[in-house]
Amino acid sequence: MRLTEIEVKGFKSFGDRVLVRFKEGVTGIVGPNGSGKSNVVDAIRWVLGEQKSRMLRSDKMDGVIFNGTNNRKQAALAEVRLTFDNHKGILPSEYREVTIGRRLYRSGESEYLLNGVTCRLKDITNLFLDTGIGSDSYAIIELKMIDEILNDKDHSRRDLFEEAT
Amino acid sequence: MRLTEIEVKGFKSFGDRVLVRFKEGVTGIVGPNGSGKSNVVDAIRWVLGEQKSRMLRSDKMDGVIFNGTNNRKQAALAEVRLTFDNHKGILPSEYREVTIGRRLYRSGESEYLLNGVTCRLKDITNLFLDTGIGSDSYAIIELKMIDEILNDKDHSRRDLFEEAT
Amino acid sequence: ATERFLEGFSTIREHFIEVFRSLFTAEDDCDLILSHPEMPLESSIQIMAKPKGKKPQSVNQLSGGEKTLTVTALLFAIYLYKPAPFCIFDEVDAPLDDVNIDKFNRMIRRFSKDSQFIIVTHNKRTMETTDLMYGVTMVEQGVSRVVPVDFSNLNEYVPADQAAVP
Amino acid sequence: ATERFLEGFSTIREHFIEVFRSLFTAEDDCDLILSHPEMPLESSIQIMAKPKGKKPQSVNQLSGGEKTLTVTALLFAIYLYKPAPFCIFDEVDAPLDDVNIDKFNRMIRRFSKDSQFIIVTHNKRTMETTDLMYGVTMVEQGVSRVVPVDFSNLNEYVPADQAAVP
Ligand SMILES: Nc1ncnc2c1ncn2[C@@H]1O[C@H](COP(=O)(O)OP(=O)(O)OP(=O)(O)O)[C@@H](O)[C@H]1O
Ligand SMILES: Nc1ncnc2c1ncn2[C@@H]1O[C@H](COP(=O)(O)OP(=O)(O)OP(=O)(O)O)[C@@H](O)[C@H]1O
Ligand SMILES: [Mg+2]
Ligand SMILES: [Mg+2]
């Protein structure tokens, strides 16, 4: 089951809709400081259901909505869609392509979508149960976590093992 | 007042005596992972009076004594000496060259030295008062501190200002 | 559940030793130890890492790069036990020297036959090992856009030589 | 003491704005704000940093590299107010891209006329800006030694091309 595509609009620095297609193997994400690379990683965490705003470097959840620039208005909603190729049937869905989506409106309303149909967060987490994919997955790693795992901060090391076993 | 020389023996990975001479301007310290570069920085912090073992990545203060290898016995004592050129008279000492030293014996005994004469830690900190030099100086910076200053962990940002003003 | 944890733990531990030795060398030593083997589900897991010749009191005494490689070995050991379909690393190569960056990236390539990897990096050596690269830039202030890059147009997106080195 | 703190604070704040704008650009904005201006000695100090065009809610929303440059600007602002005879930076350049590394190192060169700098780094661009370099190695396992290096013998101490890139 691999990631085929991510579509981001109104999420963090993605004022314009951005579509990135992924292939097999190793994809590099490069660019200057502050350009938005970690924001792509945040978008993936967020659409997978991340609930802790501080994991997304934000004080409050609405901090992830594009807050505008000197030349642009802020966005009314943040939206991310992640598409998976499910031809191996790893995800318990009869679809060959599975798209999960998440929206957050500035009003505070929030939606989760599965193949375009509104669903609950639970439906998404159930879909990925036992695949090792999730917002707190042991497969999304940044440098700070290296230290946290080493110091076993907040039982992070224990969680890592429990997640896997 | 500039740093002219550091001499390290029995401190951390410096099983052999090492002498490094510094010049004016910018000195780079390079080398592979785990070779001992940060240990040089730790040696400077330690001889300036660092009392917190965790600032030196150690559980206990005796963790800074060279603990031996497969082919070598551990050291009985850790010793660091730092020499300053005081020709501008910034340090309140009549000497043109000022050398501070620190020793820690495995027995737990510890010594501070000023120009070869045993003294108290207080004599060393008094010497550097108002120079901006000290083990918790705002002039010894590692990457972790960038985050701590940004998050103002343990009033680190406040301390920075108080140190300077 | 205890059964499954113990079986998982023991497999991950074997993988950890194997991966650690390929990120370090065959003469380097490591281990994963349960603090309370009789109560595995209550146990915390201790990491022991001992680069050749050294006798570190704890993993905390290791250098920045050694710590990164050690935790990376643990993560890859877990991926061998329970492969994640995709792995994302955000600038995890930053503390590594050139030799270790190459080992790290070779390990990623080995695992990339079965899992997809997304690697955020500033490092040119890491970039050389990718199959595909995307450049993220802000042509309009504050607005990110993403474009495919390869080594021919890399300098437009990762401006390396625009600033003169004094 | 309040007098001295306020006078120091206001000078450091001016330096911060100036240094920030040379590490970023003249169009970037920043500030240092006392949480309780009427009680300066009880106040905490807030950092506001606003790269051009962006409207970050707080410094926490900034990227890794932007945060590093911002705190670096604050540190240099303090050095301008109260110069430290020597400054030691341990791999502070790790999160920076090439353009920012050059700016960072140019700032260090500027300050190095009055203060001594000791820079621990893995980065070749940073190495090019040093006046003198020492290589730390472990020829004997677990035992560090230090030797002068320059670009002619650098590869013996910072082995860059020993591992073949696949
Ligand atoms: N809600 C938002 N609206 C607009 N911009 C945002 C929002 N949240 C974050 N940003 C901007 O995104 C930028 C950070 O992007 P990101 O962390 O992805 O950078 P990066 O490419 O990872 O950089 P680095 O190489 O320094 O890590 C910041 O400048 C921040 O101001
Ligand atoms: N008391 C000690 N006796 C012997 N060796 C020690 C002692 N304390 C630390 N070391 C060793 O020193 C090494 C770490 O050195 P240091 O942190 O200086 O590396 P470094 O050159 O900064 O590497 P990096 O580039 O990864 O940051 C570790 O491998 C550790 O085992
Ligand atoms: Mg980033
Ligand atoms: Mg180090």
Quickly give the structural class of chain A.
alpha+beta
Order of helices and strands of chain A: EEEHEEEEHEHH
Biggest β-sheet of chain C, characterized? 2 strands, antiparallel
The unreliable regions of chain A are none
- Biggest interface and which pair forms it? A-C, 61 and 68 residues
What order do the strands of the largest sheet of chain C run in, or round the barrel if closed? 1-2
Strand content of chain C: 15-25%
Strand order of the largest sheet of chain A: 2-1-4-5-6-7
Q: What's the helical proportion of residues of chain A?
A: 10-25%
Major β-sheet profile of chain A: 6 strands, antiparallel
The total count of helices of chain A amounts to 4
End-to-end gap of chain C = 62 Å
The portion of residues assigned to helices of chain C is: 25-40%
Oligomer description? heterotetramer
Question: What hetero molecules are bound to the protein chains?
Answer: adenosine-5'-triphosphate, magnesium ion
User: What is the structural class of chain C?
Assistant: alpha+beta
Structure write-up:
The complex is a heterotetramer, with two copies of chain A (165 residues) and two copies of chain C (166 residues). The mean pLDDT of chain A is 91. Chain A is an alpha+beta fold and 165 residues long. A six-stranded antiparallel β-sheet of chain A has the order 2-1-4-5-6-7. Chain A has helices at 37-47, 121-128, 143-150, 156-164; strands at 2-9, 18-21, 26-30, 77-85, 97-105, 110-114, 117-119, 140-142. Helix content of chain A is 22%, strand content 28%. In chain C, the strands form three sheets. Chain C has a two-stranded antiparallel ribbon. The chains are: A alpha+beta (165), C alpha+beta (166). Chains in contact: A-C, A-D, B-C, B-D, C-D. β3 (26-30) of chain B pairs parallel with β5 (132-137) of chain D. The structure holds adenosine-5'-triphosphate (2 copies) and magnesium ion (2 copies). One adenosine-5'-triphosphate (ATP) sits between chains A (12-13, 31, 33-39, 63-67) and D (51, 54, 56, 61-66, 95). One adenosine-5'-triphosphate sits between chains B (12-13, 31, 33-39, 63-67) and C (51, 54, 56, 61-66, 95).
